[in-house]
Amino acid sequence: MKMPAIGLGTFRLQGQTVIDSVLAGLELGYRHIDTAQIYGNETEIGLALRQSGLAREALFVTTKIWTANLAASALLDSLQASRDALGLERLDLTLIHWPSPGDEISVAESMEALALAQQRGLTRMIGVSNFPISHLRQALDVVGAGAIANQQIEIHPFLQNRKVRAFCQQMAIPVTAYMPLAYGKVMQDPVMQALADKHACSPARVALAWLLEQGYTVIPSSTRRENLEANLMAADLHLDDDDRVAIAALDRNERLASPDFAPAWD
């Protein structure tokens, strides 16, 4: 199954909240669910997947390996635990969530272990997340061009991440944009609101349409059914050149996800 262009993010969603969000999303037509070991919700998402009654082959599920599990001695066991928590025989996509803090564990060691997990059938595809260009080069040196099925990075109108995006395009690495709504900031921006008024829709739909038309996957999250439904409609919105120019001008390098262990950004 190809990765659906619009996925359901689950960051910060816990317990019954994430179960309800995933179930609502699946009922509305989402088939791509994104989680991570550090989110602490894999078990609940697995429960929602089973409760949905959908066939496994209809679903695309991504998880991400946390930094504590990047050593070769830990990565496979942690992925097996994620698989079991989700109730899946195999993940569709597994990403290295962040480069090892301070490069304590080499990219080579983690990518070799992840490639082994793929060979053993724990995951169908592999990739990375939050990798600047230097770390992407190291990953490519290990697994080769074409083996990295996805790079997940923060992209929204206020952080457009152009250098990393350009490198990914050059290397034919598909990109998923996380935090595509900038934690709701797109709804408060006057430019985005003006564009939304122009197209008789929400600023969120404008932001998602802008990313989708560039070929990126998006994984917005919501606990409100009406927002989940509206986000699915973003692919039907067509922007014009004036819209694109206006959004391009909003880039201010406003990074929202930059923990103290983050790599040096491009």
Brief description of this entry?
With 266 residues, this protein is an alpha/beta fold. Helices cover 41% and strands 14% of the residues. It has a domain at 8-182 and 216-221: NADP-dependent oxidoreductase domain (TIM Barrel, Alpha-Beta Barrel).
Task: Walk me through the structure.
The structure is a single chain. The protein is of the alpha/beta class. The chain has a domain at 8-182 and 216-221: TIM Barrel (Alpha-Beta Barrel), CATH 3.20.20. The chain has ten helices and eight strands. The two termini are 32 Å apart.
The first-to-last residue Cα distance is 32 Å
Strand count: 8
Q: Mean of residue pLDDT?
A: 97
Side-by-side strand order of the widest sheet: 1-2-3-4-5-6-7-8
Tell me what the CATH architecture of the domain at 8-182 and 216-221 is: Alpha-Beta Barrel
- Could you say which structural class the secondary elements and strand pairing correspond to? alpha/beta
Question: How many strands, which pairing sense, and closed or not: the largest β-sheet?
Answer: 8 strands, parallel
Question: Percentage of helical residues?
Answer: 40-55%
CATH topology of the domain at 8-182 and 216-221: TIM Barrel
Order of helices and strands: EHEHEHEHEHEHEHHEHH
Number of helices: 10
Report the principal-axis shape: globular
Q: Which stretches of 5+ consecutive residues score pLDDT under 50?
A: none
- Note the beta-strand portion: 5-15%
Rg measurement, Å:
18 Å
CATH class of the domain at 8-182 and 216-221: Alpha Beta
* CATH homologous superfamily grouping of the domain at 8-182 and 216-221: NADP-dependent oxidoreductase domain
